Amino acid sequence: MDKNRGWLAQIETVQAVDPNFRMLVCIRELGQILGSIEAQHPKTRLLDFPDHLAHLSRYARADKLLASDGLLGAPLKAIEALQDVPEQWQQQLYYVIFEELIEQPVVVMTGIHRWLELKPVPFDPFQLPIKPHESDSYYRYKYPHRTFARIQPPALHSVPPRIGRKLVTHFKF
Question: Strand, helix or coil at 25?
Fold first, then answer.
């Protein structure tokens, strides 16, 4: 198991290594991802982004993040490219909508277990075991993770109207 979003862009390699691979693809409303990044920036202002975006305006940062090689744009391109892979490979992907996972965790997890052909593992979304903190070093501690003992919705983030219009016109899938 590996949670790196880069595997989507390497699906041909994954298939060559293990033709029976299974991959969960978690997707989230794009404005909330971008808003989350922007909400974090003032808290870690003295830490630059790995791709040196701190000095840019919000719009310019969004433009770089959404570029085809950007932190958000590259995974979006990989998801878009999945429509061109063989149908069999597409059947080996299971899309998990982040908002549904947060709102209906038991239902979503039951669906994941069924798709993986595993027995459901009962869990209480309001009493989760907390694991040791994971490393935040990959992005130079710009995006530290917090863990919680219960599933709770993240804060809603606003996106400036001009950036919101760009999201709607450029990312329709």
Answer: strand
3-state DSSP call for residue 23? strand
Alpha-carbon distance of 105 to 110, in angstroms, equals 8
Q: Which residue has the tokens 């595997």?
A: 7
Query: Buried b / exposed e across 42-65, counting CB within 10 Å, b at 16+?
Result: eebeebebeeebeeeeeeebbbbb
Instruction: Report residue 34 CA to chain centroid gap.
Output: 11
Q: pLDDT by residue (tens digit) across 53-70? A: 888 899 999 999 999 999
Please state the pTM of the whole predicted model: 0.83
Q: CA 78, CA 92: separation in Å to the nearest integer?
A: 15
Tens-digit pLDDT profile for residues 67-89: 999 989 999 999 999 999 999 99
Enumerate the domain spans of the chain.
Answer: 5-170
Give the type of residue at 44. T
CA quadruple 113, 78, 62, 2: dihedral sign: positive
